[in-house]
Amino acid sequence: MAINSTGLQPSQGAGEENNRVQGAPALDAMQALASTMLRCVECLALYPAIEAGQSAFPMPRYRCDCGGVLDVEILFKHPDAQKRQTQDAFFFDADINALPESGAVWRQLFDERISSPPIWATSTDKHLLDASGVWRYRELVLPVPNHYVISRPEGNTALYPVGMENCGIGRIGHRQIGVYAGLDRFFLKHEGENPTGSFKDRGMTVGVTMANVMGAKAVACASTGNTSASLASYAAQAGMRGIVFLPVGNVAAGKLAQTLAYGATTVQIEGDFDDAMHLVENVCNELGIYLLNSLNPFRIEGQKGIGFEILQQLDWQAPDWLILPAGNLGNTSAIGKAFRQAYQLGLISHIPRIASIQAEGANPFYRSFNGKFTERFLVQAETVATAIKIGNPVSYTRARRVIEESDGIVESVSDTEILAAKAVIDRSGIGCEPASAASLAGARKLVERGIIRHDDRVVGVLTGTLLKDSKTGMPQGGSGSVIKPTIEAVRSVLAQ
Ligand code: F0G
After folding, report:
1. I want to staple 346 with a disulfide (CB 3.0 to 4.6 A). Which of 35, 99, 165, 212 is the partner?
2. Secondary structure letter of residue 1 according to DSSP
3. By CB neighbour count within 10 A (0-12 exposed, 13-18 middle, 19+ buried), where does 484 fall?
C-alpha cells in the first residue's frame, strides 16, 4: 500500500458507516469536540482541537506556531449535568479549586461503570467503553462520540500491595519488594498487563481514536519499542497503516517482533531515539501522516487513565507519592495532569507528590531539576534500560509543571541499581521490564535519603512487561539445566 501525500484523506475501517464526508471529520465529532481546545504550554496560545486545512481536510496540529508543545483542555461535562443542576461542567485552567460536592457525583459515575455487568464486551457498545480503564473516564479524556472509539479495551491493570504492612499474609515474595524499598504501605501498578504489554496502550487508544475522527489512513511514531508495538496493534485494529521508526540495535527483541507481527512498516534508523523522533515529526508534517508520539497531546489524555484508575482502585484516597520511570516525560505529564484534575473536580482531597526517576546515563530532566529548572539539558543517552534511553525529552515543559505543582522530585539511578531492583521484582513473581524497575530503585533511594518516609502511602508504576526483553538483567545460566529424564538426574540438580 503506498502512502499518498494526504495520509489524512478518505477514512477506512471504523467509522465509515457514519456517512462522513471523505477525509473530513464528521459533523457529530466536530460538534462534540467544539469546546475541546489545544493550549501551548510555552506561550499559552489557544487552538481548536480540529483545524480546517487547505481544501476540506483537517490539519493536525502537534505544536504551537511558537514551537511549544500543546496540552488538551476539555470542558468537563457530567452526563447528568442538567438533571442534577450541579456545577460540574467547567473549563480546566491553572487555578486549582477543589469542588468536594461535585466530587461525589463524579465518583458515583465512575464507580457505577466499574460495577455494572457485563464486563465482557459482546459488541462495541457502551459496555466496551466502561470496560476500558481509559474510556471509563471518557468525560475527562476525550468527549468524542462513542462509535469513533478504537479500544481493545485497555487498562484494568493490577495494583499489587507490596509494602511490608499491606502485602497480605503469606505473600513472602511480594513482601520482599516492600523490604527492599523500606516502605510499609507500598503498591505497584503493573501497566505491563495492558493488551500489548505496556502503558502505551492507554495513550494509543485515544491517539488512534483521534486519527479515526480525522479520517487518517496512516499513523506513525518514533519509538524505543513499546509505543511502536502499541501503535502497530491499534492501527491494525482500525485498518490504518502503521509506520514506525526505531533506533537500530536499541529495541528489545520482543518489542520489535510484536511490531512486525502486527504488520507495521518498520524502519530502523541509524541513530538514537532522539534522531528518530526528530525525523518522524518532519516525515509526518511532509507526508500528511498522523503523528502518534506523545508529542500528540491526545496521547497524554489517554495516559491520564493510569492516574484515574489508581485513585479509583484506592477508593479515591490519594496516595502520598507516585513514583514512575521517566524518559520522554509523557507519563509524568499525564499522571500529574490526572491528579491535578481529580483534585480540581473534588475526586480526591490532595494531590500526590510525583517522583520521576531517570537512568543515570539518560537524565537530562534530573539535571534540570537539580538546577531548579533554570536550564534545559540535552544528553547523549546511554543505559541498559533501552525504553528510557532518551536524551531530549519532548514533554519537558509539561512534566516540569507537574513536578513543580505537586512539590515533586526528580531522581537518578544507575544501571546497577535498576538491574538490582528488577531482580527483586522478578523474583517476587511479579516481573517487569528493565526501565520499569527504575520505580523501585528510585523508591529505595528516596526512602534512604529520607525524602519519602517509610510509613508514607506510595504507588510505584511498572510501565512494561517482563516478557518483551528476554536478555537484559536475566539470571545467569540461560535456559536452566539440561538433564536425562531420570529421578537421579533431578536429585543431583536439586542438590546444587
Ligand atoms: N517505561 C517504559 C517501559 C517505556 O517504554 C517508556 C517509554 C518509559 C518508561 C518512559 O515513559 O517516555 O512517558 O517518560 N517508551 C517510549 C517508547 C519512549 O517509544 O516506547 P515516558
Report:
1. 99
2. -
3. exposed
Measuring from atom 6 of ligand 1, which residue has the nearest CA?
A: 387
Q: Calculate how far, in angstroms, residue 389's C-alpha sits from the geometric centre of ligand 1.
A: 9
Which atom of ligand 1 has the smallest separation from the CA of 198? 3
Three-state helix/strand/coil letters over 427-468: HCCCCCCHHHHHHHHHHHHHHHCCCCCCCCEEEEEECECCCC
Atom of ligand 1 nearest to the CA of 399: 14
Cis amide prior to 393 (ω within 30 degrees): no
Of the pLDDT bands very low, low, confident and very high (cuts 50, 70, 90), residue 77 is confident
CB burial string 409-429: b at 16+ within 10 A, e below = bbbbbebebbbbbbebbbebe
Whole-angstrom distance between the N-terminal and C-terminal Cα of the chain?
Answer: 57
Q: What is the pTM (predicted TM-score) of this model?
A: 0.92
236 C-alpha to center of ligand 1: Å? 21
DSSP 89-111: EEE--S-----HHHHHHHHHHHH
Q: What are the pLDDT digits (tens) for 415-437?
A: 999 999 999 999 999 999 999 99
How confident is the model over 276-321, as pLDDT tens digits?
999 999 999 999 999 999 899 999 999 999 999 999 999 999 999 9
> Could you tell me which of 285, 265, 283 has the C-alpha nearest to residue 275?
283
Separation of alpha carbons 75 and 475, rounded Å: 50
Q: What is the pLDDT of residue 124?
A: 60
Expressed in angstroms and rounded, the spacing between residue 34 Cα and the centre of ligand 1 is 31
Taking the CA of residue 328 as reference, the ligand 1 atom at the shortest distance is: 12
Q: Is 225 in the pocket of ligand 1 (CB under 6 A)?
A: yes
Q: Whose CA is nearest to atom 4 of ligand 1?
A: 387
Q: Which residues share a beta bridge with 358?
A: 412
Asked if 446 contacts 417 with a C-beta cutoff of 8 angstroms, the reply is no
Q: Which of 200, 228, 324 to mutate to test the pocket of ligand 1 (most atoms within 8 A of CB)?
A: 200
User: What nine digits make up the cell of 2?
Assistant: 503506498
Which SS3 state, helix, strand or coil, does residue 399 take? helix
Q: Evaluate whether 108 touches 356 at the Cβ level (below 8 Å).
A: no
